[in-house]
Design goal:
By secondary structure, this protein is of the alpha/beta class. It has eleven helices and 18 strands. The protein has a seven-stranded mixed β-sheet with strand order 8-7-6-9-12-17-18, sandwiched between helices. The longest helix is centred in the middle third of the chain and has 40 residues, at 112-151. Bound molecules: 5-S-methyl-1-O-phosphono-5-thio-D-ribulose. 5-S-methyl-1-O-phosphono-5-thio-D-ribulose binds next to helix 2 and strand 11. Residues 53-56, 93, 163, 165, 169-170, 175, 202, 241-243, 253-254, 328 line the site of 5-S-methyl-1-O-phosphono-5-thio-D-ribulose.
Length: 366
């Protein structure tokens, strides 16, 4: 999508062909700064410090991280060590493990001297596939927005989203935002309610930013406002992303997603989850088994932003010594999800629904 008027991807190889350039998302929306990764340590840091974040982008970054690792140590031991190291950076998004497994499988049988190049090629393909997958998610989701628009006689469709499942969370397009961008580009009148998404405010700092860069009408709201607007009839549908979906259809996503799904259910508002196949964990049958990342209490106790003098800093919002907990994600049970929007189509959030789109998993699904 567009960044300062030009098409951009969140991650790509640098001009030298081996280093990897990312947009430092911890600086958005105040500064657009690109960072170049030259080692597995720097790739791991980018994931852990959330310079890159969002399930698909975490996966692609890890894939390039493994390529960087193999440049300096292409041995079996080096491969295994880098795989473990990168996998432990963030626990909830299953795309991380998927991407690392893909690269390991692509290189494991090759002679050591060929491994790094093969890993780069696999990572490049993964990035391109992610763009196409997200584009297709958008094409299927567009039909849902079109139907909502027709039902409203062309009046603006109000879509609520949580966190950032936008192009900044992927390589391009986004998952939840892809239908929104495609509807906007098709001339359908729409408006997006953007949850701020405490504690890290990915909605305020990333989703609002990327929608504004593309010209999509949006309004930023505090996390607790969504239920109110649903009661007022001001939300036509919700579309969120996800970090991991179980084979039974339970959905892990940014903390607060569950409350939005409950409010949507209570108000008869359709609640869709947009996801690529890389986010399905076929080995799990219950959302209770999804590992939930516990993040620093500091993120709850402080808020980051631009100060009056133009500098970017964080300020304390609670008394010193205040105890805080900070789960990064929650699980929305499948029964609260109207449907999954995937690259293969829209399906109910059930095991049968998923298997109807991915019949090749029938044998292997848990
Ligand atoms: O902690 P984050 O910013 O990585 O969390 C991101 C989300 O929860 C997204 O909604 C999810 O990864 C889907 S991204 C297409």
């Amino acid at each position: 999508m567009k960044l300062e008027g030009s098409p951009a991807r969140t991650i790509e190889r640098a001009a030298d062909g081996w280093r990897v350039t990312i947009i430092d998302q911890t600086r958005l929306p105040h500064e657009i700064e690109r960072v170049t990764l030259a080692s597995v340590d720097q790739a791991a840091h980018a994931i852990r410090a959330m310079q890159v974040r969002g399930a698909p982008l975490i996966g692609v970054t890890a894939a390039y991280g493994l390529a960087l690792a193999l440049r300096s140590d292409p041995s079996d031991a080096g491969l295994a060590q880098a795989h473990i190291f990168l996998a432990e950076q963030r626990p909830t998004a299953v795309n991380l493990r998927w991407a690392l497994d893909e690269v390991r499988t692509a290189v494991a049988r090759l002679p050591e001297r060929e491994r790094a190049e093969a890993a780069y090629m696999r990572a490049d393909r993964m990035a391109d596939d992610d763009v196409e997958t997200c584009r297709r998610i958008g094409a299927h989701g567009l039909e849902i927005i079109k139907a909502a628009s027709a039902a409203k006689g062309g009046r603006p469709v109000n879509v609520l989203t949580h966190c950032n499942a936008g192009w900044l969370a992927c390589v391009d397009w986004g998952t939840a935002t892809s239908p929104i961008y495609q509807a906007y580009d098709a001339g359908i009148a729409l408006h997006v309610w953007v949850d701020e998404t405490r504690p890290r405010n990915q909605g305020a700092s990333l989703t609002a930013f990327e929608l504004s860069q593309h010209g999509v009408p949006y309004t930023l709201i505090v996390d607790n406002a969504g239920g109110h607007y649903m009661q007022q009839g001001e939300v036509d549908l919700c579309i969120v992303g996800t970090d991991r979906v179980t084979a039974s259809g339970d959905v892990a996503n940014k903390i607060g997603t569950y409350l939005k799904a409950l409010a949507a259910h209570d108000n008869g508002v359709p609640f869709y989850v947009a996801l690529p196949y890389t986010t399905i964990d076929w080995s799990l049958t219950s959302g209770a088994d999804i590992p939930i990342e516990e993040r620093s209490a500091d993120e709850v106790l402080k808020v980051a932003g631009r100060l009056a003098d133009g500098s970017v800093d964080s300020v304390a919002i609670a008394a010193e010594g205040t105890p805080a907990r900070n789960p990064g994600f929650d699980v929305t049970p499948a029964r609260l999800v109207t449907g999954f929007i995937t690259e293969r189509g829209v399906t109910p959030a059930t095991r049968e629904g998923l298997l109807s789109l991915y019949p090749e998993r029938k044998e292997r699904a848990a």
